[in-house]
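Methods — Computational structure assignment.
A single polypeptide chain was analysed. Its primary sequence is given first, followed by the predicted tertiary structure written as structure tokens.
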Amino acid sequence: MISIQRKIWTLVAVIIFFMAAIWIALTYYNQKTQDQYNNILQRYLRMNEVTTESQKTIAALNNFLLDPSAKNLQQLHWSEEQLRSAKVSVSSLKNNENVYILMNYMNLIDSLLETTDRAVLFQAEKETEDSTKAFSEATRISKYISEMTLSLLNSELKTYDRFYRGIIEQSTELKKLGIWLLLSITFFLLLFTYWFSLGITRPILKLTQAAKELSRGRFDLKVEVSSRDEIAFLARMFEQMRVNINNLFQEIKDKAQLEKELQQSKLLLQESQLRSLQSQINPHFLFNMLDTISKKAYLEGSEEISDLLVSIAGLLRYNLKQLDRSVTLYDEVKVFKQYMEIQSARFTDRLRLLIDIEEECLHIQIPALTLQPIVENAVIHAIEPSVDGGIITFVIRDEGERVKIVISDDGPGMAEHKIKQILEGEPSPENEGHSTGIGFSNVVRRLRLYYGLENVIDIDSRLNEGTKVILRIPKLKGIGGHG
């Protein structure tokens, strides 16, 4: 079976693959073209740099001749170093068409540097006239360098003109190709998406049509969906439901006459007789019916309903036990879990249960129906009123001679007078009406009577901070207890 989620991820992967391929191809060719542009531009900038540095060198030489200070000399040497760096950079631009002119170009740079050094030497020897001639010669060489730079740039423009035009044409064609490629892939993706969506929506439309026919009362039409995903499973369950409903309708038609006679018989009964019959219903009959329904639900695949019915039956059977007899803590924990399973089905994700139990503590004796009324109180006052629900924590710990049981919630908490009322064993209407009919105060009184101790239970609660009920159960029952 191929899930709908897997189909959607496949579609997303195909779209991302094609889009990524287009983006990578266009980026690659765009970067390649940009690198070619940069290479040409770098050649022009390197040649222009020689002219700029030669002019800076002449200006630095002039400043030194006018003011032969150490600072001006240092500036002149720095300008010469920059000019040498520019010469090295230009030397890498050789090709078959500019080899001779580039050699002369670099010789002129060497001549300028030599003339500059000679002018500095003459200035140091106080030969002003020779220094002036050397400066004039350096100025003339700098002008030659500027003119030859223009010649080189002109030669470079002629050399790369055809190449540059080819780049422009290639870029234009690449742009057209990218547009056509994008349109083509978009068209095919639209077709693929349409075909893909049909594979999902067609079974849903068939199932929708079948639901409409069922809503009109036509239970004889078979539900058929040809797919291999969750919709097919849903259609099979829908078909099974249709068959079951159709069979039930048939049974109802077959028993219509009998039901009519039974209804007439019921109308003849007196109200007192009805109440008498109701009071004589055997609880074991109710348990057997719940067990039968549970097995039928399990056989039809409704395992969650089956488990829920088993929990309800167990809870009802346990709640009919007499309160004056004791059970093991294991039995109390078992019915506690059955009760929480029922409440979890009711509240779903609004109710979260955290359990931490030390199994070796479960053998001790405890009065029947002790834990359920306490946790019912937490569900009714902490979980049920809250839109977001809450958390109930159940902990059993071994504390030597006693076993500590903690049932806590994160609800609105209890007022001080309410805690006092419960611990003093005073009955309260708010504690009645639960599934057991046993209030919180009743649990407190039975625990103290059973163990002959006052400190067997404690309540820690503050408003808006939750409630914690703590039981400290003796492992051996006290003298005041009874079995």
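Note: The longest strand covers residues 390-399.
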